[in-house]
Amino acid sequence: MATQEEDYLGITDYKVIGTRPIRHDGVDKVTGRAKYGADIDLAGMLHGKVLRSPHAHARIKSIDISKAEAHPGVRSVITVKDLPLQEDQIKDLGEGAANLMDLRCNVLAEGKVLYHGHAVVAVAATDANVAEEALDLIDVEYEVLSPVLTVHDATAEGAPLLFENQTTKSLGEDTGKKSNVTTHFQHKLGDVEAGFEKADIVVEREFDTATVHQGYIEPQNATALWNADGQVTVWCSTQGAFTVREQTAQLLDLPVSQVKVVPMEIGGGFGGKIRVYLEPLAAVLSKKTGRPVKMVMSRTEVLQATGPTAGSYIKCKMGVTNEGKIVAAQATLMYESGGFPGNWAAPGSMCIFSPYNIADVQIDGYEVLVNKPQTMAYRAPGATNAAFASETVIDEICEALGADPFEFRLQNTSKEGTRRADGPTFPRIGNEECLQLARETDHYKSKLEGKARGRGVASGFWFNAGLKSSASASVNADGKISLVEGSTDIGGSRAALAMQLAETLGLKSEDIKPQVADTDSVGETDVTGGSRTTFATGWAVHKVGLDIKAQMIERAAKLWEVAAEEVSYVDGVLTNSADASKQMTFAELAGKLGETGGPVMGRATVQPPGVGGAFSTVIVDVEVDTETGKVEILRASIIQDVGKAIHPSYVEGQMQGGVAQGIGWALNEEYVYREDGTLANGSLLDYRMPTCLDLPMIETHIVEVPNPGHPYGVRGVGEVPIVPPPAAVANAIYDAIGVRLFDLPMSPGRVLEALLKKD
Questions:
Q1: Residue 649 has pLDDT above 80, yes or no
Q2: Which residue among the candidates 367, 416, 719, 753 is catalytic per the annotation?
Q3: Is 323 a catalytic residue?
């Protein structure tokens, strides 16, 4: 067994954890046999389509659906009147929250449309083409209103209001002031004014970040059957089947037991597939027609009408002494919530200064309504915007001090016992270890030569989540285990969970047969999001393993007619301690369960508290074309504390994917809106995400500082990789051409404009 010191350093004698087995669902996915949401094909199935608003902000004066209803092949047409009224009530979605009244009005607009692409009418017809034809026959009369598209527009004096009676809640109190600002909150630690008085150098800058989409490959989809017995079944692409069940049941005014959600394989989500869009519509259309209804969004609909991440305005101010100690930090974060109230400034405020130990901090957050789709999570939601601001300011401070960026960060690093401005105190974390390793990498030590080339570094934090998870498993007669869990597999979580169960039982990874079950077949499990799955559902399968282990010991004791205390269980082998010659493997005992009382099943439900936050550091080299402003990424490395890498290949994949998306956010990705609020780049030809031609091989360096709140030391790994890249790229651009950029994306036009201003 590992010593306490070895375990602390992440060095253990695990047999399965830390290896790289082939993923259990790999063959089906590479052969195309895996079933995704749009693959559903049911007898008698109809096809649904949605009429969407051509305006960003308008009152709906009238809707005439009579021509569409008369069209041959059309079976049903519905408006918001076909959805039950909802209360003004907040529901937690696992990553973010939704007001039921707003959720209903987002599924189908009522009274007003609040963004270009807002759903207005839904149609079910015999095929998709007929449904499209029917949409053209629907007459909607609008009174077009002026849109507000940024937090600056929305908070300007006399700005048009999205909701005439919306007032600002500030520090928990309703101010009574009508505004597009829904919420203002504040975090304070120490005395920020006194802190700045101690500073020798103060840097204050303002930053704007654009609206960005998650860019998942598979569009939103839903198929629903409202059966004659009142039971509703929904097949869909989702990050959380139970979250879809809760939302759909609420919007249909049904008990959750009448709604079954079957999660199909998912072609990406990154936080964007948690809220419902099509599921309630497909269900109501099914009820009205008596037939199953399938709905699949086009890519344009995905970009226009699903939840991108929040654009933002951030003012960041930091003060340091000449000795390099950060003594004060202050930030104002204003985040777009889209057409309905949201809460993305909150996680941004929890992360902005968390990589540092600062005694005096003040953070003010604002949620602002704008005429865009309601914003949703996107990999560490809010944290990337925040780190772009704070890490750019840190780089400018390092320049003013003449300090090495890693030496400065190590001097001010947060560590175990450091208190965050929003309240929590850090347990054991690996921030310092990431910085130390980053400083020693070949990348950072290498020379960077050439014209207009530069290197930038940045750090980032994400707090991760725990929430609810359930799992069960049954022992088969051949010793294999059938594992049933409720977490949608996005990044290889089936394998990671199977490996944790195998480790607990002393079996091989391939001895575990995992499946993601529907909502009728497993206990309640929260979303695959917030970097919680390998941690929380891993806790559940670990407890399942302990349950099975205890039962197998009892069964062996029964066979040997000894007390359970006299049976040892080591690496999948059971031994009679009174007679060492009596041994059985797990598989041998599994074949004799019928002689000892019948089948063995393990089960567990958890809501674990020991969540461990994650840190990452990114190093980026760039070359800037000073004639065009184009930025090329020459080299990129990420150093991340993962607690314990269950399957290192999938951990590395998460790290690389987050950096790739962060680079896209840094250089290219943004929603481009016309003055009237219509989306100008609603396709993947015009909304440009990076491809393999835009990126080098991203180098990964895994740091393992075990999370003391998990039996295998797990920390969530999926979200923090996206946090530092935009700031690292910005700092590299400055190093290359001596120009600081404060807006995202840093597209060729913006870079060239900054160069021309400098000249």
A1: yes
A2: 719
A3: no
